[in-house]
Amino acid sequence: MTNQPEGIATPDRRRVLGALEALHERYRGCNEGRIASYIPELSKADPSCFAIAIVTVAGEVFEVGDRQATFTIQSLSKPFTHALALADRGRGHVMQRVGVEPSGDSFDSIIRLDSTNRPHNPMVNSGAIAVTSMIAGSSPADRFERILGMLGRAMGRRPSIDEAVFQSERATGHRNRAMAYLMLNFGILDRDVEEILDLYFRQCSVLVTAGDMATMAATLANGGVNPRTSERAVETEHIRDVLTVMHTCGMYNYAGEWAYTVGLPAKSGVSGGIIAVVPGQFGICVYSPRVDERGASVRGIKIFEDLSRNCGMHVFETWRQQGQVLNHLDEVRRPAPALPDTTHPQGDATVHKRDNALG
Ligand code: GLN
C-alpha cells in the first residue's frame, strides 16, 4: 500500500526499474576512482559493489544492483545530525556556532573559519563535529542513542554500527582530532573533545544499505516523515534549512558544479554513497565505493549527471515534468549528450596538499 499524493500519477514500476537497470548497466564498467583508505578499515570495501535505490514519498521502493551490500554511512549522516541539533538547540544557537556558507574547500580541510570564527557549514567535518557536540542527552551513551534513534526513524529500522570502522577511525582520525582541539580553543566546542569525537566517529560508522539511505533521503523529500513507516524523524520546520545546506554545501568543493549539472540537494560520503532529494517526490541513493579526489563516488556522480540531464530532475527544471520526475526516468535510455569530463581536473589546485588524501 502506498500513499501516493493526489494529482500525481503513480510511476510505472517496470519502467522505473528498467531505467535503473539501464543506468546500472551503463556505468558498471566504470572503474575510475579509488577506495578511500585514509580510514584503514574502509579500504576493505569491495570495489565492484554497486547499488541504486529510489524511495518515493508514497513509500514505493525501487532497487537495482547489490541491494544487500552494507557500508558505513560516513558523511551521509551529517544532514540528519544537523536536523537533530536544530531541534535540540534551535536555529539561533546552531547558526551562532556553525555557518551556512560553502567553504569551497575539501571536506576535511583543517579548520578554516569564516569571518565570525565559525566552521563554514555543517557538511564539512569541522562543522559536523561542532553540530554533533550540540546533540542533547544526559550522558555520552544517551547522546549516541538519540542520534541512532533519529537515524533509525529516518531509515525505518534500528541500525547497528561497524565496530571495526569506528575503532579504525578513532585510532587514526588525527586530522579530525586536530580540528576539534582547535575548535575547543576557539570556544566552538565546550566539552570533552575525545567524547565529542567518539560520538562523531560512531555516528559515521552506522551501517546502511542503498535502500536505507534512499528511505532516509525520501524522509527529507517527504517533510521529515518516513514514507514507509509514517514515523516522523525530522521536524518539518527544519527540512528547509537542512535541504538548503545540502544544496549549497553537501558536495563540498564540488557543490557549485553539482548544483549546476545535477541541481539537487545532496550529500556524499567517503565510503561511496551519494544521496539526493527531489523535494515532494523521492529520495535516491547510489552506492559504489570508488571515490574521486573530492571523496565522492565516481559512478554516483555519473549517474546523477545522467539522470539530471535526461529526466528534468534538476530542481530548476522539475516544472517541465508537471508533477512526477519518475515518469520520465526511462528517458535515460536515450543516448546522453556528452559533457566535458571535469571530475579529473588537471594539476592539484583543488585539494589541500596531503599525500594519499583518500587512497
Ligand atoms: N568519517 C569521515 C571523516 O570524518 C567522514 C568524511 C566523509 O564521508 N566525507 O573523515
Structural summary, described in words:
The protein has 359 residues and is α+β, with helices and mostly antiparallel strands. The chain has one domain: Beta-lactamase. The protein is built from 12 helices and 9 strands. The strands form 3 sheets. The protein has a 5-stranded antiparallel beta sheet. Strands 1-9 form a two-stranded antiparallel ribbon. A hairpin with a 4-residue loop joins β2 and β3 (61-65). α2 packs across α3 (91-97), α4 packs across α7 (174-185) and α6 (163-172) packs across α8 (193-204). The radius of gyration is 19 Å and the shape is globular. The protein starts with 12 loop residues before the first helix and ends in a 48-residue tail after the last helix. The model is unreliable at 345-357 (pLDDT under 50). The chain binds glutamine.
Please summarize what this structure is.
This protein has 359 residues and is of the alpha+beta class. The protein has helices at 13-28, 78-89, 91-97, 125-132, 140-155, 163-172, 174-185, 193-204, 210-221, 236-249, 255-261, 298-311, and strands spanning 34-35, 51-56, 61-65, 71-72, 207-208, 266-268, 273-278, 282-287, 290-291.
